[in-house]
Amino acid sequence: MDILNSEWLIAMLKKSGSTPHSRLLHLFDLLDDWLDAPKMQPRVDFKPSQGDSPLVHYLTLEAAKAGAAMPELLANQLYFMAIAAAQEKLHHQNPASLSHAKNAAKALIAAQTKREFHVPKKPAYAVAASTILIISSMIGYQFWKYNDIDPVAHTAQFASDTMPNMGPATGMVADASHLTASPEQTAALFARIEQMRKGNCQLIEALQLPDSYKKVYFENIILGQISVNREDQRLTNQLLDMVRCNYTPMLMANSKN
Amino acid sequence: MSVLRERILSTATDLFQTRGINSTGVDTIVAEAGTTKMTLYKYFRTKEELILEVLRKSQSDFQSWLDLKFSTSNQKPTEKIQQLFDFIEEWVSSPSFLGMGFIKASAEFPDEQNPIHQLSSQQSRDFRLYIAKLAADANIQDADGLALQLSLLFEGAVQAEQMKRGSGAIKYAKQAAKILIDGARK
Hints:
By secondary structure, chain A is mainly α. Chain A folds into 2 domains: 3-113; 123-251, no CATH class. Chain A has helices at residues 7-14, 20-36, 54-65, 71-92, 97-113, 123-147, 153-162, 172-175, 183-197, 211-222, 230-241, 250-255; strands at 200-202, 244-246. In chain A, strands 1-2 form a two-stranded antiparallel ribbon. Chain A is elongated and about 65 Å long. The termini of chain A are far apart. In chain A, 31% of the residues are buried. Chain B is mostly helical. Chain B has helices at 3-19, 26-33, 37-43, 47-71, 80-93, 101-108, 115-137, 143-163, 169-185. In chain B, helix 4 runs parallel beside helix 7 (115-137) and helix 7 (115-137) packs across helix 8. The longest helix of chain B has 25 residues, at 47-71. The radius of gyration of chain B is 18 Å and the shape is elongated. Chain B starts with a helix and ends with a helix.
């Protein structure tokens, strides 16, 4: 019986807490309770799934919502830790193994979700540059949106050539417009954008983006109007990967200079 | 130890780590080592015996490497437990890292009665005891509890790294280890 990837476990996790952080940690409580329950079920093995694991998929979404720097990696590490701790309890009669695993998981989640503290050499200039960039981006967007012309059409092809793994852009959004993202995907994207807003971010050169990316970029990232279209969300996530953020609080950064 | 036996062990270690233990046949090992089945069976009576010896040697090599690193460092005993994760990060980041023998073996041989599973399980517990000793040297009260937490972190990170090289798993495990060690000192 593969309890780890059962619908039951994932359903229990979904209603186990009010925050992604608590739902990630409840994995260890649920397994602990389950192993303590009177054994009505057949013999159970806790071992990593050979193919795609529904539990890892679920944990990845929750890790993204919790603001993890690398959600899939965090999900995999938590998954392996849960398996090892369950085996320890089951085969070596260590009653506290899942409780210790939960402590280790808390620390790992903290490591993946903590703010990065880098002191910029010229924080004031960095803030000014970001502000100017955002304002100029918004002006550019208004110009592009209402005049229905592309002021930098000659740069679009160049930008398209220089962006890795962007795939064919033309027509992609329109073709996939009937596909709607799941609430979990939308929430994960919302969490990423919220996280970005907490930092001092160097946004990408929006005017050099291909036309098909501009609308998605301005509406989702600049204005925060997150689309429920799955393809739009995929593009938004790709664009967010290109945004570099510094999360040093300004007072702290200035006090160190 | 004979040169030929050493070569068979080294070849089998590499093949088990890169292709998996169950997926690597004796024919492949002898072909890669440039020897014959008869020679292999002269040194190892069965494939199971070869696997057990590979596990023992891998663990012994790793432990010797760690001991050497600690013997050449000037850290106080109380700082060695944190330094352990610096060394582990160095080991996992090296190009020659192929994974941890006992972690792979435990996954491939889940039957508790299997001697390979039993040895890999024992090696996992031995490594935890090693961490517990470092924790006790650092005057940490619940040394066994911290050792279990750190070993779960370590094994989870190595498994993630085995899935995808350069995953960054050990970097986060090291940061988490620091949080746990600092918390246990209070």
